[in-house]
């Protein structure tokens, strides 16, 4: 497990703002901060002491927020320096160099330095109580050993981000040649006895007392951690990255942990993306199939209507055809029955009236009259037979059975006609499409 102590004063947006530390901004717009867990944070400053979420009401009229605390400190402790330097500027007629306490507090060279403490990563870190104990002991030792020139202004334990960590802000101050206390880091460290890492070389960015001071702080911090039972990797983790901006460094640490999971997340995203593509294809196919089903349903309904119409037509035609057939059949039966009987009587009458017929001439007239009556009776009997046959054929049972037989024959005939017409229509459509395709090809060839 690693321990991090990272320092910074300013970044791309200017000097660091302590509002981030005491959460005096709209945290709902910060994705990396959990508003509910923010209630667990602990805050401390040099004027108010310890505060929590439940005790964030102003305790002094002049120093409510961390920013107020730092402004009040600069106004009170550096007043003599500010007034004296402004007076000297006026004396040399360089009043454009005059500065206020706020301007000095927000200047990159004289603003408070901020340090971030963290032990472990988002997946493997110490309990907040352990982190707080180690850092508190370190700050207490720092105050005791170097408090004459280093003053801690405020700090905050953040438990609402991915990894517990502490933001601490402090100032380096020392008296100038006029006896005025002012914020000057290198002079303060020199007064504390820190030497340059390379005494024979010129002081600069890579050769200053702050480097020795940070090394001493790091050694002290590890010593305290070991005393509290922690086994930590002591080799510096970030090397040349120690000059990264405070918030960039925090985000970088979180990013390194997130990137470990990044590939898995990307693979999951890719799988989800592929699944979404598959679903889209399936949805498209389903929609196409649904469209085809709707078209087929509409066609089926249309055909059903046509079939119903054809069935109705067949029913009507069959009934009419059967009724007409009954009339024709009964009439034919009547004619056939009547004609055969009457013809037989006429033939018999003719034979009786022949000269060679062996019949008494006196009886012949009576016989002829009887035969005429027989013919009349036969005509009336034929009409009765016609009525009986017609009634029998038109009875509900006979008529229903007869109509069904006619329908079957009619349906077969109609369907045969429809099939022949459909085949002919399909052939006509194929020939028409072939002609249209040929016309399109000829038109394209002409355009080319």
Number of strands: 9
**Helix count?**
10
Helix/strand order: EEEHEEHHHEHEEEHHHHH
Report low-confidence residues grouped into runs of 5 or more.
Answer: 238-248
SS-based class:
alpha+beta
Shape: rod-shaped
The termini sit apart by 76 Å
Average pLDDT over all residues: 81
Secondary structure: helix percent: 55-70%
How much beta, percentage-wise? 5-15%
Radius of gyration: 59 Å
User: Biggest sheet, open or closed, and with what strands and sense?
Assistant: 7 strands, antiparallel
Defining key terms:
seven-stranded antiparallel β-sheet; alpha+beta; rod-shaped; 448 residues; 60% helix; 9 strands; two-stranded antiparallel ribbon; 11% strand
């Amino acid at each position: 497990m690693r321990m991090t102590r990272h320092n910074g004063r300013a970044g791309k947006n200017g000097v660091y703002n302590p509002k981030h530390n005491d959460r005096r901004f709209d945290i709902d717009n910060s994705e990396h901060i959990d508003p509910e867990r923010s209630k667990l944070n602990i805050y401390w400053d040099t004027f108010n002491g310890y505060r929590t979420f439940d005790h964030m009401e102003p305790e002094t009229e002049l120093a409510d927020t961390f920013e107020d605390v730092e402004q009040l400190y600069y106004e009170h402790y550096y007043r003599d320096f500010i007034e004296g330097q402004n007076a000297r500027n006026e004396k040399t007629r360089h009043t454009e160099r005059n500065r206020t306490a706020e301007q000095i507090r927000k200047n990159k060279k004289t603003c408070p330095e901020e340090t971030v403490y963290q032990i472990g990563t988002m997946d493997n870190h110490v309990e907040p109580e352990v982190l707080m104990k180690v850092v508190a002991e370190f700050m207490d030792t720092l105050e005791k050993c170097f408090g004459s020139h280093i003053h801690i202004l405020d700090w905050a334990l953040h438990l609402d981000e991915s990894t517990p960590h502490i933001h601490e802000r402090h100032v380096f101050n020392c008296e100038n040649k006029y006896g005025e206390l002012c914020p000057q880091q290198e002079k303060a460290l020199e007064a504390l006895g820190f030497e340059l890492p390379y005494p024979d070389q010129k002081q600069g960015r890579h050769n200053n007392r702050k480097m020795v001071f940070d090394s001493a702080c790091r050694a002290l911090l590890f010593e305290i951690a070991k005393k509290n039972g922690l086994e930590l990797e002591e080799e510096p983790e970030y090397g040349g990255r120690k000059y990264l901006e405070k918030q960039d460094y925090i985000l970088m640490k979180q990013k390194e942990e997130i990137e470990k999971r990044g590939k898995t997340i990307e693979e999951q995203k890719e799988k989800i993306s592929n699944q979404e593509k598959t679903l889209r294809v399936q949805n498209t196919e389903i929609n196409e199939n649904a469209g085809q089903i709707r078209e087929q349903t509409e066609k089926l309904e249309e055909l059903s209507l046509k079939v119903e119409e054809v069935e109705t037509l067949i029913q009507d035609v069959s009934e009419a055809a059967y009724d007409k057939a009954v009339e024709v059949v009964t009439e034919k039966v009547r004619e056939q029955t009547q004609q055969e009987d009457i013809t037989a009587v006429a033939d018999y009458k003719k034979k009786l009236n022949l000269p060679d017929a062996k019949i008494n001439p006196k009886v012949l007239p009576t016989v002829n009259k009887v035969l005429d009556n027989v013919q009349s009776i036969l005509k009336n009997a034929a009409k009765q037979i016609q009525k009986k046959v017609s009634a029998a054929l038109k009875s509900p049972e006979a008529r229903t059975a007869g109509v069904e037989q006619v329908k079957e024959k009619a349906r077969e005939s109609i369907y045969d006609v429809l099939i022949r017409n459909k085949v002919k229509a399909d052939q006509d459509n194929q020939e028409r499409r072939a002609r249209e395709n040929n016309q399109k090809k000829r038109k394209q060839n002409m355009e080319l």
